[in-house]
Write a structure and sequence with these properties.
Layout lengths: L3 E7 L2 H13 L4 E5 L16 E6 L3 H12 L1
Antiparallel strand pairs: 1-3, 2-3
Length: about 70
Amino acid sequence: MDVSVRLTTVSDEMEAEALCGLLRSAGIECGYRPTEEDDSAFEGLSPGGRQEILVHGADLENAQAVLAGAQS
């Protein structure tokens, strides 16, 4: 059984959807969920809040490469 692991966190659900779309286009299954991590004094005031991006453990290295390529 493959376990989901956190790839990264993003600021909101819209960014999570965009990143998961990128990962899925590279053939990597992806999901996201709200994270409990606070990133500012305004945490919890905006709808959705921070999201953690999850991938299968076996896909983590490939997902990191896709993410790195998108950031460069």
